[in-house]
Design a protein that fits this description.
The protein is an alpha+beta fold. It has 18 helices and 24 strands. A hairpin with a 4-residue loop joins strand 2 and strand 3.
């Protein structure tokens, strides 16, 4: 039986899986790596960490699936990261990641240089600190010698393609997040590149996500154990690939993915733009499809911060019991009442993107009293993250994209308690799929299409992705959550000016 490999270069680690033709997952492997924060609100990684993890994971999977059974490889990974290579293909500096917030000034400079109307017409989005283009401008301004040596700029998953295949290539969904792609026409924007004086030769060729973009070369084969000549498809940015892995290949279905970030994702048949520019409009990893996406920067990241900072007892107890610390945290949260007795958590630990594109935004517990316990804190973190996801869902409803249900994936789909909370907060049914393997699964599905196993991404999703469970909204709980959510919505506007002042205090 043939298998299709999906490689996911995440923020905290790499994941590789082998998808069988019948839709079963034949093997998986994961490998973690660290994130560097050399200054407050900066985020960088050494691309060699990605490559080391990829080699390890691919070899582990191939210890269970023979290399000659791998019919094609798909790539996915964290979006927006900037990898700069010299003329020899060597990395010039650590990659600047999606959650890095250093480029507020460059966003202003870019918008002025291109013109806001032209920028929206070409890229369908305002430029934000997380996107790739302002990172390029930052390097050009602050590290001119690095910029002068740059011969190619790649996104994270596309660096792995370079190491595997020796080709420079990307695809439309990931390229949409650079602020350099003409999203309606699915090609690099000559207008934006010209306005920014960026040479198009510094950018790779753009493919559709299921198109074959290269083949494993001798070096890639020696490093991973894959056979030379194995085709590699374009792949997708992690959110588009994750949506494919969730069966979101056509309009009418909305997904909510909770990883480090949180994403609300809806497919569309045209590049639909929110008039208020609160959500992103990107090319989908499906030909002639686009998607609308709201992104909060610290969804699962907020819960991880809570675990690492305040839950050493739970971590120790979980290790002793042989379980995940999150199980104990969520068990504790479930003992607190809905609404956490007036305690609200703002999940802006990395700034925010949707609906508040503000790198100065800060996290906060608001409403603390002597009555509150760690159980209240844990529940308020879960509620605050879920409220942040609802912000994006409400924008989609404003755009007349109002689903009867959402498909949940990531950490927020693993807990029955959190799934029920999402169904109640969102006010619609919450469904999960049988295999919650995320972007790696989507990348493998794209590889299956590229290898000719299916005629289209839509057909592949219909045959391979099956739902497993549905949780319905409890109307009584939904009413209580709604009161807390309405109060939650008032807090960012009230605190916005103070967040920037607090950041300046930190600089002092």
């Amino acid at each position: 039986m043939k298998h299709f490999l999906g490689i996911d270069i995440g923020t905290s680690g790499a994941k590789v899986l082998a998808l069988a033709e019948d839709g079963s997952i034949a093997a998986t492997a994961q490998s973690e790596y660290p994130l560097s924060t050399p200054q407050p609100l900066w985020a960088e990684q050494d691309p060699q960490l990605w490559w080391n993890a990829t080699q390890h994971c691919v070899r582990k999977v191939l210890s269970q699936i023979p290399a000659f059974d791998i019919a094609a490889v798909g790539l996915t990974g964290q979006m927006h990261g900037l990898v700069m290579l010299d003329k020899n293909g060597e990395v010039l500096r650590p990659a600047i990641l999606w959650c890095d917030q250093r480029t507020a000034l460059q966003c202003q400079v870019m918008t002025a240089a291109v013109g806001e109307d032209t920028l929206i017409a070409e890229t369908c989005n305002p430029v934000l600190t997380g996107f790739t283009a302002p990172k390029v401008l930052w390097v050009r301004q602050h590290e001119p010698r690095i910029y002068e040596q740059t011969a190619m700029m790649l996104l994270p998953k596309d660096y792995i393609r370079w190491k595997l295949c020796g080709v420079f290539a990307t695809e439309v969904s990931d390229a949409s997040g650079t602020s350099l792609l003409n999203v309606p026409k699915r090609r690099w924007s000559t207008k934006v590149l010209s306005a920014l004086n960026i040479d198009k030769d510094l950018l790779p060729r753009v493919y559709e996500s299921q198109e074959i973009s290269g083949e494993i070369n001798v070096g890639g084969a020696q490093a991973t154990g894959l056979l030379a000549g194995t085709p590699v498809v374009g792949g997708g940015g992690d959110q588009a690939a994750g949506a494919v892995g969730n069966g979101i290949a056509q309009a009418g279905i909305v997904s909510v993915a909770t990883g480090t970030s949180g994403v609300v994702f809806a497919a569309s048949d045209a590049p639909t733009i929110d008039p208020a520019l609160r959500v992103h409009t990107f090319c989908h990893a499906v030909p002639d499809k686009w998607h609308v996406m709201g992104v909060m920067l610290a969804a699962g990241g907020s819960l991880r911060w809570y675990r690492d900072t305040l839950c050493q007892e739970e971590i120790a107890a979980a290790a002793k019991a042989g379980i995940d610390p999150y199980e104990l945290i969520i068990q504790s949260a479930a003992t607190a009442p809905i609404g956490s007795e007036g305690l609200i958590f703002l999940p802006y630990l990395s700034g925010e993107r949707t609906p508040h594109p503000d790198p100065s935004a800060r996290g906060a517990f608001i409403g603390l009293t002597l009555r509150h316990t760690k159980a209240h804190l844990a529940r308020s973190v879960l509620e605050g993250v879920t409220f942040g996801l609802r912000d994006s869902l409400e924008i989609l409803r404003d755009m007349n994209i109002a689903p009867d249900s959402v498909r949940l994936s990531g950490g927020g789909a693993k807990s029955t308690f959190w799934r029920q909370m999402q169904a109640d907060v969102f006010g619609c049914d919450a469904t999960t799929v049988q295999s919650d393997e995320g972007p790696a699964l989507g990348a493998a599905v794209l590889a299956a299409v590229g290898a000719g196993r299916f005629h289209s991404v839509e057909e592949a999703c219909e045959k391979l992705i099956k739902t497993s469970s549905t949780i319905s909204t409890d109307s009584s709980r939904a009413k209580i959550y709604n009161r807390s959510y309405q109060e939650y919505r008032t807090l960012y506007p009230a605190l916005k000016e103070h967040f920037e002042k607090l950041g300046n205090l930190g600089d002092a």
